[in-house]
Amino acid sequence: MSRFGPRNLPYGVFSGDDGVRRVGVRLDDTVVDLSDVDELCRRPTLNPLMAAGPARWARLRRAAREHVVDAPRIPLRAVRLHLPFEVADYTDFYSSEQHARRVGQILRPDRAALPPSWRHLPIGYHGRSATVVVSGTPIPRPYGQRGAGDFGPTRRLDIEAEVGFVVGVPGDRIPTAAFADHVFGVVLVNDWSARDIQAFEYQPLGPFLGKSFATSVSPWVVPLAALATRPAALQEPEPVDYLRPAGPGFDIRLAVEWNGTQVASPPYAQMYWTAAQQLAHLTVNGARVRTGDLYASGTVSGSRRDQAGSFLELTWNGTEPVTLADGSRRGFLLDGDTVTIHGVAAGADGADIGLGSVSGTVVGQSLFEAADTP
């Protein structure tokens, strides 16, 4: 059974030979144009549809399921896929206990692995929406200060395999129970990270240039209605009131490929903080989310090393390189390396569905080329 059958129907923005962008759904290895189904699907971005709210989403999903039965199909190879939504703001969280513990052990071996607040609230930082790019966009190697007086291209370029949540309906102080009233769907995320730049700059205000140069997302937004839910992980101590109930968990399995070799299989089901809690925390101070806001889960890592969602963990800060299928060994990313993250989830109708993939290839450049890059 196809993981992109009628049970799934993720939304994307595509163009053909005419260059006109419009909304379609993926069906197997084809795209079905929805521009004749709903006038909001004639727009060059998903934002108007996402802003229309859950009732409109449900009507379109029912209509799309009927439409794809007899509608013309366009082969994926014949279309160009675009960034599916205009990104309003971008926030990244830090919600895998396994990831947080390993990072603490690697970078702060003389201190407690988890920050004191970690079990009390979902820790996060605000990123840059302008540097969110669609899968397939080349990733220029970033420059920055790697230490005192040490400026140059990062030597420790890394990935973070994540799941992203796309806001449709604006709001503030959103309770966890209202999560599905505001979130349109999910995407796969690779939050590229320059670990040496990050390590020198992050105290006391957290990530900055080591994170803000590029974040890749998949071209397909899987609607929440397509996903099965599961109980959230046990949390101890019990969170404060605005973080209860925890909201739904999701059974999403990721696979990370480094130059075509699968090196890790991070399980989202082991995340400590849920997407509903992240949204509640993001807005509890009165901050307003807008249509097109993207917030990401943080690195998805499981209890085993081969479930690590970053190469910092997988190679233990580069000291234990992995061997790829061609026999080469890697601690961090080299120019020309390609990373692809695939995702599969338990679907609401009982069968697994696909989340697609997010991919990027690292390209080297001089400082002057970097300055000219839009």
**Percent of residues in beta strands?**
25-35%
Into how many domains do the coordinates divide?
A: 2
From the spread of the alpha carbons, the general shape counts as: globular
| Protein structure class | alpha+beta
Question: What is the CATH domain class of the largest domain?
Answer: Alpha Beta
Number of strands: 26
What is the overall number of helices?
Answer: 8
Q: Percent helix among the residues?
A: 10-25%
What average pLDDT do the residues reach? Answer: 96
Instruction: Name the quaternary structure.
Output: single chain
How many angstroms separate the termini?
42 Å
Radius of gyration: 20 Å
Largest pleated sheet: 8 strands, mixed
CATH topology of the largest domain: Fumarylacetoacetate hydrolase, domain 2
Uncertain spans:
none
The CATH homologous superfamily of the largest domain is termed Fumarylacetoacetase-like, C-terminal domain
Corresponding CATH architecture of the largest domain: Alpha-Beta Complex
